[in-house]
Amino acid sequence: MLDPLRPSLYLLAVMVPIACTTTPIALQSMTPSVLRMQVAHVPATLGGEPVTVLLDTGCDRVIVTEHSLRRLGLEPAGGQEALIDITGTERGGLETVELRDLRIGGMELVPFSAIVLPPSPSGGAWMIDLVAGMPVMANGAWLFDVQRSQLRILDADLGEAKLAELGYEVVSIVPLSGRMRPRVEVTLNGRRRVSMLLDTGAAKTIVPADDARAMALPDGRALARERTAKAIRDFKVTTNAPNVEVRVKHAEPGQLTGVFGTSVVNGLHRLQALRLGSFEATDLLVQSHESEGLLGQDVLSRVPWLLNCARGHLCILARREVHDDSSADTR
Question: Measuring CA to CA, which residue among 224, 4, 296, 146 is closest to residue 232?
Fold first, then answer.
C-alpha cells in the first residue's frame, strides 16, 4: 500500500487483486541464501537481468511494472485482471505477462503469470520492478533483520539449531491465520486484541477505525509534526546543511499539516504500545482506516523475525553471539 506520510519509503501503491484465487508458485530450486535488504527491497534477477523486488506479504499476487517489461523486452499476454488498493480505488482491464527465470537469492521459481502495473497516476515511474507477494513468499522461510539490512531465505523445514548457527534464537512463536493472506493477533495498549494483516509492503501500521474509536486513541498529529521537525534538525546537524528555519505549524482538522504541508488522509493516532508475541513496540504513530488492520514496517523493522508459512507461524527472534571455537586452545 502507498503510505502518504512517508513517500520516500515506498513509491509503489501495492494493490491486492479481487475476484481471483491465488496459490503458491512452485519452486524450480531452493538454496539457502543471504541478501542485502533495504527495508523490504531486495536485488533479484529476471531472465538474467537485474531487478529490484519489493517483498510484500500484504499482496496476494505478483505484480510487475510496465516500464520494467519494456526494459526487459517482454510483451504482455493480454488479460483482464483487476486490482484494488487500500482506499477502495479499483483498476480494471490490467494485462498479464508470463515471467521466467525469476531468482531471488538462492530461490528460483518456475514460470508464472504476473499482473502488469501501468505507470503511476502522477506520470512518474515506479521505483521498483516487481512486487513479490504471497505466491512467492508462501515458499521457504524468510528471516527479516532490517536493522542489519539483511534478508535470509531458508528452507521451510529448518530447525532452531540452524537459527543458532546464524546467530539467532527463537523468543516467541506467533500463529498465522491464512497462508495467502497472513494475519497475526496483536495486543494494543495492553488490553485490546486485534487481528491484523502482516504487511511488509506497508510503511505504517493501520488500526481498524472501530478499534481506534473503542480505545479512544489520542490524536497523533502534534507528535508527528514534532518528530518530523526533530528529524530535519538532526539531519541539518549531521550533514552541515544550510541554516534553514524549521517550524512546527499547528493546523485545524482537515487542513494541511506537517512541516512540508503533508496532507493526512486517514486519522493519525498515538498508540502507547503494540505487542506481537514477546515483542512490544511503544509510542507509535498509527493511522486508522475503515478497512482491515495492517501491521507495517514501523513495527516489523524494530526486531528480527522469521516468516514460515509452511509451518503456519511467525517467530520473533533475538540476536545472539556466535562463538567460533575453531581457534580454541585444546591442550
Answer: 224
- The three grid cell numbers given for residue 41, joined into one nine-digit string: 527491497
Amino acid found at 48:
G
Helices (H), 79-140: 134-137
Q: What is the pLDDT of residues 173-231, one digit of tens each?
A: 999 998 889 999 999 999 999 999 999 999 999 999 999 999 999 998 888 888 888 77
> What is the Cα–Cα distance from 31 to 28, expressed in whole angstroms?
10
DSSP tag of 38:
B
* Higher-scoring residue by pLDDT: 94, 302: 302
CB 204, CB 296: distance < 8 Å: yes
| Cα separation, 74 vs 86, whole angstroms | 29
Query: d(Cα 295, Cα 188) in Å, to the nearest integer?
Result: 12
Residue type, 130: L
Tally of CB atoms within 10 A around 196: 24
C-alpha cell, 228: 518530523
| Helix or strand (DSSP H, E) at 93 | strand 90-94
The DSSP call for residue 103 is: E
Q: Are 11 and 51 in contact (CB under 8 A)?
A: no
